[in-house]
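Case study 2.
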Amino acid sequence: MIRVFDVRVVDEDGSQLGVMRTADALRLAQERGLDLVEVAPLASPPVARLLDFGQYKYELTKREKEAKRRQRSVTFKEVRLKPKIGIGDFDTKVRRAIEFLEEGDRVKVAVQFRGRELTHPQIGRDLLDKFAEQIKEHGVVERAPMLEGKSMHISVASVHKPKAHEPTPAAAAKGHAGTDEDAASAPDAAAEPASAETPANPAAPGPEPEDGAASNGKVN
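Prediction:
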């Protein structure tokens, strides 16, 4: 309900109609079969627009769904190493971590100790330092290596922007909004109007995994 006496009116084409009494603006909206919607309540005087509110809500919802489909949240991946890992395996893990980082994900790189290997934690620390050096162009280490239980790990934040993924044709046909990694974020659509008159002519949007726990990005 628009309660102010005067409003600055914008018509359905975006043209300025000037300042007029709210009652006159409502009458004009009714004559055109449209609604009077307050779109800038903090302006002086407030700005109201003539539009089909039902159609506006439909288009707004459609834009929000499209934005959600194209957005991708940052997920947490995990790469696991062994103290006695071979050079070839080590290089493979590095490439995999770089792939995760290029997708915009954060990565946990963990060294798993077994038995007497725990008496030589420096081996794991050196391994993680070497790993961090290999991926430094793609990520920033958020924490220094620390031994926790039988695992020592570092967390790496990507320097790349998360990539959006298009849904598969099958998912699109079923109305899905993308892959399991898609998540809502702030849509780029315009905010919903602060208030609206009753239509004169109603129309027909990551936590780090625990040590030893499986991760969706786990690399064995």
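The CA atoms of residues 5 and 94 lie 66 Å apart.
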